[in-house]
Amino acid sequence: MTVIVIAGGSQPEIVEFVNLAKNFYGEQLQFVVFDKADNIDPNHFWTYYHCANDQEVAQQAVNYVATGSGQVLMKGLIQSHILLKALVQDKFDLKKQTLLSHIALIKLPQAANRSFLLTDGAMNIAPTTTTMIEIVDNVLVVAHKLGIVQPKIALISSAENFNPKMPSSVLAKEVAKHFQDQTTGLVFGPLSLDLALSPQAVQRKHYHGPIMGDADVIVVPNIDTGNVLYKAFALFAGAQVGGMITGAKVPVILTSRSDTAQSKFYSLQLALRQLDTEV
Amino acid sequence: MTVIVIAGGSQPEIVEFVNLAKNFYGEQLQFVVFDKADNIDPNHFWTYYHCANDQEVAQQAVNYVATGSGQVLMKGLIQSHILLKALVQDKFDLKKQTLLSHIALIKLPQAANRSFLLTDGAMNIAPTTTTMIEIVDNVLVVAHKLGIVQPKIALISSAENFNPKMPSSVLAKEVAKHFQDQTTGLVFGPLSLDLALSPQAVQRKHYHGPIMGDADVIVVPNIDTGNVLYKAFALFAGAQVGGMITGAKVPVILTSRSDTAQSKFYSLQLALRQLDTEV
User: Which InterPro entries does the entry mention (chains A, B) (predicted)?
Assistant: First the structure.
């Protein structure tokens, strides 16, 4: 039995999402919802706790997973920063890694339905070398949990040539150097997006390297790059997208207002695959 | 009669591209090719000039447009920086605006075949407020030449809320402020990509603003954001993409090795629409 704790969940979008999840996982999942609004669960899908305001919603939801009663935390329709502020409070002792980072799972129909991870398009604004090393550490854990033994991790810049005038190129080179003797993953960069994800582009450019259109992970140099990429894939490339925050002791699903119920469901699947128990 | 000058053009890819252009425009276009390799033109498509090396290719090609013998400059398979170095030399007097910037034209089948411009994913690495104002000035000229009287210009950040901690958000706010009384275009930001380009996302987020999924121009906060976006649209969203450098007295087509002949042709169409004479 796995318990999903939703902070701010008494909304039609969440009912639709829980419906999808219940249909797929049946009684393997239980849902606990904290909200300041009235309980709108029509079918006794979830256990409901009423709170006075968004701050209490966040505190109660985080406390529920911190005490071990829930295994996955999910943001409903409260604001991200309110939930994240509660999540990192010392009293809950929920931080596992030094850094929290966002990881998206993207399945592209155009690339033979291949899936890859994208990080970080939602949490860390302008990573330094140290921050990006931690972002890679976090995504290595997630990739391994997904069963990718030695993930190919592409550090994205605008081109594959090292360019000292291009900050993303310098960042990629430094981070790749840090991981050069790592055997749990292949960390390579700078690399452009086409060479990281498209075997056709690799062929057209006659490119040879350790990653040739077959990256398992895309690491972007800044939040704006990841954010537009996530949105372009989701809105214009027909991709299945899900996302979560990693680095805490429980996976945290951070849905956006513009995510569909289906996309929330993919996020749940990604989060469940991070747990040690099979769901 | 319009003359297209190609620097480094004696390659099969360029023959294929010139074929496409000749089929479409017939005798309205003439091509002049500078190269250090042998002339491979099989059908007397172009006038050919042999050069000693890439530097001479660049000098001769730029000189040809500077003296008024050619109306469009196109990079073939020489390196961009060699051509650009020649282009900005004072002796040629080819700079019109203070800044050269890259502009792509993107037609997305998913968005009812709507076209929009994307700038700058290829030239300016990390624009300051001043640089981004010049990027917007350049794209205003191009949009007007395309017949868009008052283009809706979205300054992209990761979200539509102003966030002082997010450099792209601060940049967008400052640039939008600079253009607030401008009547030749509507310059607005910060705005997220989904709200700039997708009416469906606007609807789902209940968003209201001067741009609601109907942007004519996407201005990105840094080169990496524009570069991945261009590549994602071209490779995974089935978009038609073309691109050029603006700010010089002649349009400059800067093709990439991974561009198809078709994409080079779209770039030519975009460039031709910048000329005062009809082609």
Answer: P_Ac_Bu_trans, Phos_Acetyltrans/Butyryltrans, PTA_PTB
pLDDT tens string A82-131: 999 999 999 999 988 889 999 999 998 876 667 999 999 999 999 999 99
A2-95+248-272, which class in CATH? Answer: alpha beta
Closest CA to B233 of B114, B125, B136: B114
At the fourth CATH level, the homologous superfamily of domain A101-236 is: Isopropylmalate Dehydrogenase (3.40.718.10)
**In chain B, which residues have their Cβ closer than 8 Å to the Cβ of A158?**
121-122, 223-224, 227
Contact B258 A204 (CB under 8 A): yes
ipTM for the predicted complex:
0.93
Q: Are B40 and B15 in contact (CB under 8 A)?
A: yes
CATH number of B2-96+248-272: 3.40.718.10
Confidence band (pLDDT; 50, 70, 90) for B114? Answer: confident
Name chain B contacts of A110, Cβ cutoff 8 Å.
235-236, 238
Please name the residues in contact with B180: beta carbons below 8 A apart, sequence gap of 6 or more. Answer: B187
Listed by number, the residues of chain A in 130-159 with a beta carbon closer than 8 Å to a beta carbon of chain B are 156-158
* Domain ranges across chain A: 2-95+248-272, 101-236
* Beta-carbon separation of A193 and B110 below 8 A: no
In one-letter notation, the amino acid at residue A144 is: H
Q: Where does residue A102 fall: left (phi above 0), alpha (psi -120 to 50 degrees), or beta otherwise? A: beta
